[in-house]
Amino acid sequence: MVGRIAAIHNHLHNQHHHDKVGFFGFFEVINDFPVAKALLDAASDWLKARGLDTMRGPASFSVNDEWGLKIGGFDTPNTLMMPHNPPYYLTLLETAGFVKAKDLVALQGGSLEGPLTPPERTERAVTLLKQRYGITIRPLNMKDFKGEVELVKQLYNDCWEDNWGFIPMTDAEIDTLAEGFKPVVVPELVPFVMKDGKPIAFGLTLPDLNEVLRTNRNGGMFPASLVMLYKLKMKKLTRSRILLLGVLPEWRGKGIDSALYHWIWTKAAARGIGWGEASWLLEDNLGIIQGLSKAGFTPYQTFRILDRPT
To answer: How deeply is 259 buried, as exposed, middle or buried, from its count of CB atoms within 10 A (0-12, 13-18, 19+)?
Structure first.
């Protein structure tokens, strides 16, 4: 076995964007161009036979799953659910005719040496923000987990609608993800911003379970065993990943994102988590990147989406 690839026809993407883009993903290959070419051409032929004129990836399966080819930041370990690949993959894909479609960035903040105290000015700014707009922030309510998932459904597609490559998540997809996260979710790291009893923004942060999974010498991860869950609960995790942070369009530019960053920072620090990654972000999403920069985050890893004609 020297390589693997999947060709993916995502009908929802084509319906949403009115294009003829197909995807490739689950791409693994040795450093051998003829092998890589054979895999990519096979996927391309399959997509072209279905009337698709562009092959985009890596996407396993879509923008809502593992997305992008790592092209920078190889000296640092990956966080939970972020892709990883050897550096030579980019050369193989470019030699096969792929070109950049979009870059994604991951930013890091905090310290691996231990939790840092948020600046007092940030605390004051968030207090004034709450008073000005009459908003409150609360954690996920695990006693009404199903109801909380319904709130996420309401927010998710509205918050990300304008993002490049966005594909709406179906109810079934969100339900499946929620059930997968439920055993390891930390309620206070899933904040909702409320206005007049209705959610206007939310964030999803998870402890970086890769800290434990990297030390799993048995080589397996699925299904999660009782032993693995025991290790997760017993081991003090020091890293986290902000997977989602969304604000309804009409509330953007008002500092709501800063209030979410401050909440997550404070609650994570209380659990002994001193370092966090915000990922992934579109390279041209300057508003959210600038907001994170003000909170002390800096770019440190880059992932690329590539296209070529089928």
So the answer is: buried
Q: Provide the angle, in degrees to the nearest 10, between the axes of the packed helices 256-270 and 120-133.
A: 130
Specify the 3-state DSSP secondary structure of 169: coil
CATH 3.40.630.30-classified regions of the chain: 115-273
- Listed in sequence order, the DSSP H helices in the chain are 11-17, 33-48, 88-95, 120-133, 145-160, 171-181, 210-213, 226-234, 256-270, 286-294
Crossing angle for the helix pair 145-160 and 171-181, nearest 10 degrees?
120
User: What amino acid occupies position 123?
Assistant: E
Would you say residue 218 has pLDDT above 80? no
CATH number of 115-273: 3.40.630.30
Phi then psi dihedrals of residue 54, to 5 deg? -135, 140
Residue 4 pLDDT exceeds 80 = yes
- Cα separation, 258 vs 245, in Å, equals 11
Confidence of residue 35 (pLDDT cuts 50, 70, 90): very high
Q: DSSP 3-state assignment of 239?
A: strand
**Residue-wise pLDDT tens digits, 113-127:** 888 888 788 889 899
Residue position matching structure tokens 């009893």:
197
- Token pair 């918050």: residue: 159
By DSSP bridging, strand 69-72 and strand 66-67 are: unpaired
**209 pLDDT band (50/70/90 cuts)?**
confident
d(CA 278, CA 265): 12
- pLDDT band (50, 70, 90) for residue 167: very high
